[in-house]
């Protein structure tokens, strides 16, 4: 075949962009011929990001073999039926075709027909248990036929891909991975096979043991899978090098980078990249749900509203659109409507994970805890590693006042995201409620150590120390907290700053460190709730000072300013989950 | 001894499927769906109606007995159904088959017609079927379910029927008439099809295909009850888990499967998976509870409380008492907030179990019993009574009152058919009788339980026999047999225990302990002290106090007196602290023995008197008798054999009635010694009589010792007997004894303790 003749450049070698572009155009065309629209789209998008080719270098239309010519009529007819989603009809006319292209379309139509019927059947089955048992009846036959061909080595790259898909649908994961790897070797340009591999590989170890073809496509694959496996740093590096190699205009890469930043909660960067993406590709709907999540987190109502209206105009029956609208309503506290839109998204695509979790959040807002639990559980069923759903379940039980019960869920979430401070703070709060102060302290301290997002861990830790009469440690925590706040230079008044100063003032007062005490007391006066206390303390200090010797007049620089900022402020990057108590799971 | 009964209650974790000790796995919303199997039943019913009076009375009765299980049971293959009908009435089976064939090979309208005709059976002045009868309800359910089906569902049902019928047909065809000629084309198609099935068969075996709703329910309830009653009969943990995973793959909403998976994980002591399954179950249960309107908000809150309670139970089972306490506190708080007294009672019982781990508290328990009675929770109440009785027995309360209480709670059990509690009660009585030292009564109770037909056997057909009660009773039985010298029988019982409670199962530790104790006793009797010493480690692992005690005994036997004494003193203090009176007395006895072995009889006396007072106070009769024997021995050595004989009369009866063979032998030996000693001052004629009776007693002792194969004691007895015969001038007998003595003496090593000066 044509692809076999084409030399695909080795891994990381992007020197000949023209050649790459040719290959992309070629594979886009061939994918389209076989009805593989997503892979075609991907290749085309990437090709678009590269410089246009002059006329004389455009790849020639693929040559037709004898077999192709024989099957041409059947193929043309069937392809048009296929495009109209009349899969059975297409398959009927393709029976007996021998050419690779027609054979693939034949098998693929049968597969899709089975899938479509399966989806239709789930609506009216004969019993609740049977609901889950509706299977794609065609799969087994397809597997048998394809495995025969596979043994005889008659499958081309696309055929292998289809065989892998069939195997995966039959839950034969190991076999499927092998076949996909083979497909990637035979036809490295077909993005679909790579993407399927991404879904099947669950950890870094598995990735290490795969023998992948050494082509430039591998770089895209690696970048993608690093994002999936939450190895964001590595993923960003890969994407950067791809951009440097000349794919700077690719919307695909830009969107992936934005998603990666979203995953590490670098909200500002992600937001700016998404805005850029929308400028380049204003009618894009993919990934806009992630964008809306970011807008939601930052409470950017007007932007979210604009996005929602815009997407609704483009296509209101898309999962992403529903999700954005749901977020929009949620931000406006219209939770019923939000839940409705998430439900709609799930109707459009029951495997769309994010919507389950988001719906859970909405039900939580509506105080419908049982529905929330249901939604979260569904999310976990779709993806066991969805930490937000575990976290949500924990929150639900916390609202139901079951702090011990929710520990389990928070712990699960924590295991999935060991360096996310939110779970740690939640865990700490639960332990505090259960009066397990030692564990609580551990949690808060770790939350601070991994980089506290909400900056509450230290205050909570300080209060714990306060409770335990460990005034030394409490003061230390408050100092660190204040340093933290000031170093951020946040304009927003932090609620607990006054508490911190009040405690510190009293602490220094007790320790008879008048200078520090008076500095803190003065700070106290800046806040409404502590003003009176601060003044009273200042008076007391003055009195006591007058009794004693007069202190040196030069006031040292306030200790709490960033000058003495501790070095451990940088969060450790990758940490193992906290071992809270050995006996509990 | 009675320690075995201590763990009885822990096995009764409360679960939502279990109310008053009965498993109700079928808590699913009962909704009927028309399946091909059900259609076959409908055909059967309509044929039954049509056949009417032509059927013989006998056939009719047989069919009537067949119907209810068919109507309620899981779906089955057509061939099996046909066989079942054929056994009752072959003629009817034929007509059912024909009608099914007509329907399956006909058109869709035949099926539709069939359902239209079904409702006719209700009409008329004298309908064939009453609307409210079992059959009538079934018919109406089916008609209703059929009418609800959409067009495509009706078509699907029809194709399902065809498949159902043809599967059967094909099987028949394969058996009988393979000869039928088919044209080559069809044959080709068949080949293709078979090839198609070929490579897939293996996986299909692995997951054995999806189950229907009813089948799944049946499977779950069956396995759950097997797990509860007879674990060995249930599927192996791994394969059960596989089945459950399969079930859950097809229907993740099937919450009960998660619960079963939790129970299954408990079997293999997997704390991670069991927690996971338990929480998943309650997450799922919560949503089904919220969905059904009848339960409403109430049901939802209820499952939350029980979720926390079950979590507490789980932690308790894995020995995480602190965690269990936290979870329990949570359950109690929520239950209090929602005024759920029933749940609170459950919590209270668990609180008791947890507190027991730390210290005894009767107050909680009494409170629990009262409240449970008040709220009409017989299960919980008698469980409480049983715990209370157990505790009081250890605390030395009057035996008659305890037995009365047990009898009263037994009345309650029989009234409510709580077979599990009846078992526990009997096991507890066995243990209590053992504690009091009445081995014959204990033996009787143990046999009662083992030969009793469980109530459940009537209901489910499963003998309830892998509960803790059975383990306890069997262990006691083994020990009782070993005490009487029937070591083969004891070994047999232990072998049975090993089979019934495999080493990784929940109650396996019980028999492990008893097994080692029996082995230890044997080793001590045979004088293989090093073997006994090696068993101590194993015993200590299972029960630390018992282990320390045995260690001291071994030390004592090896003449390491000061070490033994040190150990025993430590143990004494510990046991007095935890109020383990039984062990205190045993330790005191051992200490006394140490004293008289070092010839300090005067010091031994107060110790023995202390032991006697304690044993009397706690009505531990057997220990009391043993103490009396020791006392008598001390008196004998101190030169007041008449006094010794006097008090021996008190002890000898209980020892002979209930004692271990070894103890019996020792007692008789001691009696003989006392007789001889006191005879010294008698007139010659009377003296001869006394000596002769002593020889008889020695003979008895000899038989006892021979039974347990105690050669050392046997040697002593023979020596003593030879001396007595010598005194009486019976040379022949004397020589015989002397010869036997010499044989034994050559076999055994001589050891330091003087021959006559030792009792035991």
TrEMBL record, chain A:
GO terms for cellular component: anaphase-promoting complex. It comes from the Eukaryota. One of its GO terms (biological process) is protein K11-linked ubiquitination. Residues 19-258 form the Cdc23 domain. Keywords: Cell cycle, Cell division, Mitosis, Repeat, TPR repeat, Ubl conjugation pathway. TPR repeats lie at residues 319-352, 353-386. Pathway: Protein modification; protein ubiquitination. Belongs to the APC8/CDC23 family. This is Cyclosome subunit 8.
Automatic annotation (TrEMBL), chain B:
It is found in: Cytoplasm, Cytoskeleton, Spindle; Nucleus. Component of the anaphase promoting complex/cyclosome (APC/C), a cell cycle-regulated E3 ubiquitin ligase that controls progression through mitosis and the G1 phase of the cell cycle. The APC/C complex acts by mediating ubiquitination and subsequent degradation of target proteins: it mainly mediates the formation of 'Lys-11'-linked polyubiquitin chains and, to a lower extent, the formation of 'Lys-48'- and 'Lys-63'-linked polyubiquitin chains. The APC/C complex catalyzes assembly of branched 'Lys-11'-/'Lys-48'-linked branched ubiquitin chains on target proteins. InterPro entries: Apc5 (IPR037679), Apc5_dom (IPR026000), Apc5_N (IPR048968), TPR-like_helical_dom_sf (IPR011990), TPR_rpt (IPR019734). Belongs to the APC5 family. It comes from the Eukaryota. This is Anaphase-promoting complex subunit 5. It holds the Pfam family ANAPC5. Keywords: Cell cycle, Cell division, Cytoplasm, Cytoskeleton, Mitosis, Nucleus, Phosphoprotein, Repeat, TPR repeat, Ubl conjugation pathway. The gene is ANAPC5. GO terms for molecular function: protein phosphatase binding.
